[in-house]
Amino acid sequence: MAQNRGEWSELYAILYLLLDEKLKIVNSDFDVKRDNIFKIKEIISNNKKSNILKFKILENDILLTFDDVEISINKKDISSQKEELLNSIQKAPKSKGSFGIPKIKKWLLEKGITSNIKADNKSKEDITLLNFDNLKNNEVLLGYSIKSQLGKPATILNSSKQTDFKYIVNGIDDKYIDEINAINTPKKLFDRVNKIYELGGSIEFSEVVSDKFNNNLELVDTKLPSALAEALLNSYIYGTKDLEKLFSMSTIYSKKIYKKKLEDFLLAISFNMNPSENWDGEKKVNGGIIVVSNDGNVYVLDLVYHEKEVKEYLLKNTKLDSPSSTRYDMLNLRKENGKIVFTLNLQVRYK
C-alpha cells in the first residue's frame, strides 16, 4: 500500500474531517471566512477499484460501511491514526515518490480496507460529503477535489496527446527545418521559436489536435482554443509560465474580459472537464476544493457560496507547466500537407 504524498493526504483529509466536521471556509489567502455554514454528517470515498467507503459521523464513533460490512471506530482511534499519518507524511524525504506507512497500513487492514483510498485519476471528484447546510437548514450532497500542500504542486490539466496544439510556420524555406530541429540548447524550445522569427518566419495557430478537447474548450468559450494556443506559444517567446500574465497579453480577448475567460477555463479543468472525454458542460464537482495545508489543517475553498474566492485562488496559484518536449515531440518542425508545422503541449498545475 505505497502511495505518494498527495494520495496519503487524501486519507489524512478524511480522518481530519471525521473529527472536525465543521468545514473551515477560507478566502484565496487562506484566511478563515466562515466555519458555521456546513457541518459534515457523512463522508463518501469512491476509490480506483470502485469500492465505496461511507463514514457516518456519530457522537463518539465513526460508522464505517463498505461491501455490506459495518464497523464502528472510536474517534480517539481516528485521532491517533491521523497524527501518525501526518507525522509520517511530513517526515518522508521530499525526493521520495511513493512510500508505505506500516502502522497505517496495519490499521486499515484491521478495518478490512485492503485497497488504497484514492479516487480514479480521471475523476475530478475525490470525495463526497453529506453536509448539513445551516443557511438552508437542510442536508446537501457535495463533491470535492482534494489538494495537498504537503506534496508537490498538483497538476490540474495533465499533459497527454489530447492536449497537443498544432501550429503552422510561414515564411521560411524548407531547408531550415533540419537546422531549427538541431537546436538542442538548455532552452531549446525558446531558441527554436526565436530562430523561426530570426529567419523572417511567422507562426499561426492551426488547431487543437484532439476534437474532443477542442469541443470541450469551445463549450467554455468558442475563442478559448485560439486564446490558449496564443498563451502557450507566448510562454516560449517571453519565457513566462504565469497564466494570468499570458492572458493579459491576449489579442483574442479584450482587457475587460480576459480574466473572466481564464477563470472559466480554470474552473472547467479543475472541477468539470477531462480532455479525453466528451463533456456536456455540466459541473462534476459542486462543493469546491479541500486543501490540506502544510501545518496539517484542512480548509475548504467553497463553490456553493464563495465561488469568487475559488476563482481568485485559481488565478493566483496556477501556471503553465513544461511537459517533456521529447515525449510530446514539441517544436519539432515537419512537413504536413505541404506546410511546415509543429505542436506544443498544454499542461496546467499549481504553483
Determine Rg (CA atoms, Å): 23 Å
Mean pLDDT: 94
Count of DSSP strands: 17
| Tally of individual domains | 2
> Beta-strand percentage?
25-35%
Percentage of residues in helical conformation: 25-40%
Any low-confidence stretches, pLDDT <50, length ≥5?
A: none
Helix-and-strand structural type = alpha+beta
The succession of helices and strands, N to C, reads: HEEEEEEHHEEEEHHEHHHHEEHEEEE
The side-by-side strand order for the widest beta sheet comes to 6-5-4-3-7-8-12-13
Tally of individual helices: 10
Taking the alpha carbons of the first and last residues, their distance comes to 28 Å
Pfam families: RE_HpaII (PF09561)
InterPro entries: Restrct_endonuc_II_HpaII
Task: Describe this protein's structure.
By secondary structure, the chain is an alpha+beta fold. It has two domains: 5-152, no CATH class; 161-280 and 317-350, no CATH class. 32% of the residues lie in helices and 26% in strands. It has helices spanning 5-19, 75-91, 102-110, 177-181, 188-198, 211-220, 224-238, 243-248, 258-271, 307-317; strands spanning 25-26, 32-34, 38-46, 52-57, 61-66, 69-74, 127-133, 138-148, 155-157, 164-170, 202-208, 288-292, 298-302, 318-320, 334-336, 339-345, 348-350. The strands form four sheets. Strands 6-5-4-3-7-8-12-13 form an eight-stranded mixed β-sheet. It has a four-stranded antiparallel β-sheet with strand order 11-10-16-15. Helix 9 packs across helix 10 (307-317). The longest helix is centred in the N-terminal third of the chain and has 17 residues, at 75-91. The model has no long low-confidence stretch (mean pLDDT 94). InterPro entries: Restrct_endonuc_II_HpaII (IPR019062).
